[in-house]
Design a protein that fits this description.
Elements (H helix, E strand, L loop, with lengths): L3 E4 L4 E3 L2 E3 L10 E7 L4 E5 L11 E7 L1 E8 L4 E8 L2 E5 L3 E7 L3 E7 L14
Length: 125
């Protein structure tokens, strides 16, 4: 499995705005909506994939702009990219990842399992 960053176009748009259907055909148990204020940092961790929702971890940026950084556990830079509206990110296990909100940003996380705060499959160095 590899790290993926996919820039989407809306499925449909008109004068009212747009519609985009994401994670089509995948069996979701939870979709988490996240809001991050400009200037904040999230992540700076990795997952082992013990939770199926983290193998891979899946996000879709709804509105805003973030700097996404991915590193190997040895500290090798794998990817650093500015991501914005309708960008999907799929992060495999054992990839350390960080999001820096460059603007106020809304995004969603697709989960195959409900979040369990007592067993989050989240690890820091």
């Amino acid at each position: 499995m590899e790290l993926e960053i996919i820039k989407h176009k809306p499925d449909y748009s008109d004068e009212r705005g747009y519609i985009h259907n994401t994670f089509k055909g995948e069996d979701a148990k939870q979709v988490t909506v996240l809001f991050r204020k400009a200037g904040t940092i999230s992540g700076n961790h990795y997952h082992k994939g013990e939770d199926p929702s983290k193998n891979p971890e899946k996000f879709l940026i709804i509105k805003g702009k973030m700097k996404f950084r991915a590193e190997s556990l040895e500290g090798e830079l794998l990817r650093e990219e500015i991501v914005d509206d309708l960008t999907e990110i799929r992060i495999p296990p054992f990839v350390k990842h960080t999001f820096e909100a460059l603007e106020d940003t809304w995004f969603i996380e697709y989960r195959k399992t409900p979040f369990d705060k007592n067993n989050p499959d989240t690890y820091r160095d």
